[in-house]
Amino acid sequence: MNTLSNSSFNYSAFEAFFRGTPHEIRERLSVYLPLASLVHVDDSNPALDIGCGRGEWLELLRESGIPAAGIDSNSEFAGSCQQQGLDVLETDLFSFFERQVASRYSLITGFHLIEHISPEKQPFFLAAVLNLLAPGGVLILETPNPENVTVGSCNFYIDPTHCRPVPPHLLLFMAVQAGFSSPMIVRLNRKTVGEPLRLMPSEEPYASLYNRLVDIVSSRILQAPDYALVAFTSPSPSLAMLEAVSAINRQNDMFVLPPLPIEGPEEIDIAHLHQRTIELEKELRIVQELLEPKDSAFPPTNMASATKEQSVPLNEFAEPVRRSYLTLLSSRLISKNKTS
To answer: Which of 1, 164, 176, 187 makes the best surface tag, with the fewest CB within 10 Å?
Structure first.
């Protein structure tokens, strides 16, 4: 929701530049559809999206057959949604609350909304939302996650309409104080911060130090950039709803991967090794035959000439002999150790 009083600031252009394309936003918000499909939403108790913006979430609900309406204080956003055939009202949030006397909603959502509300009004906002929810209703509030160092120290303040970051545990506490049932925190969009990290096997040198660094980096520097409060009204949520929330969290937990197993010694094929030994022995005998004198019965009379003639094949075959012999010896040792 745009709370800037300066009309020269084009908030729709700001969102288009910084938040992402409608397709990207739809993809991120689709993670909530399994949960939304479990909520009993009908025409008498529809879904309500507060600060609906460009209407990506309302479009997803419409495509899923879930009755929904939205509100936004930005006239450009509201007008664009109305042109898409979405049920959107241009109004101020707290003025809307004052007019809602008998209306009830089964699902109320606010994506990147509560950080626009001043801290002193946030408890009132949560109490007003609780009053609008029907029994068994669900609240989803998504907001930037200050646990991520980059978000908490820099990116949050890019938007001049933001008031201050809302830490997850603070929002959880305020939901309990307001009277919500079973409030939970789910962290989101972690895949946007980089590639998953993998732990090192504990047997490796310095594994303890490395894995500790992975924990620090993953929980702070590469923590999920967004999180959501998911809270319920009485009666308690069904097991299917709780599982849908857990499924969202598991996507975030998969960012730190378990260590790969350490590979053991290579399995040796004894039959293949024996065959290779036989082949090497044959090669060695061939080389030895090549090194033997051609005609030992008639040695040359000139000893110097004989030494020169015999040195040629020795120089030529010295390396093959040495290589074949070492390979053969190694194979025999391995075969002996394996069979013993």
So the answer is: 164
Q: Which residue has the tokens 């290779």?
A: 276
**Where does 91-198 show beta strands of DSSP type E?**
105-111, 133-144, 181-188, 197-198
List residues bridging with 110 in a β-sheet: 141
Q: 330 is written with which tokens? A: 């190694």
SS3 231: strand
pLDDT tens-digit profile, the chain (340 residues): 444 444 568 888 888 888 888 999 999 999 999 999 999 999 999 999 999 999 999 999 999 999 999 999 999 999 999 999 999 999 999 999 988 767 899 999 999 999 999 999 999 999 999 999 999 999 999 999 999 999 999 999 999 999 999 999 999 999 999 999 999 999 999 888 888 889 999 888 899 999 999 999 988 889 999 999 999 999 889 999 999 999 998 888 778 888 888 766 556 677 777 787 788 778 777 777 776 665 544 454 444 444 444 444 444 555 666 666 666 666 666 665 655 5
The count of other CB atoms within 10 Å of the CB of residue 121 is 14
Are the C-beta atoms of 134 and 106 separated by less than 8 Å? yes
Beta strands 88-90 and 197-198 are unpaired
CA dihedral 161, 226, 118, 140 (to 10 degrees): 120
Q: Is the CB of residue 142 less than 8 Å from the CB of residue 227?
A: yes
Which is it for the CA torsion 51, 54, 58, 60, positive or negative?
negative
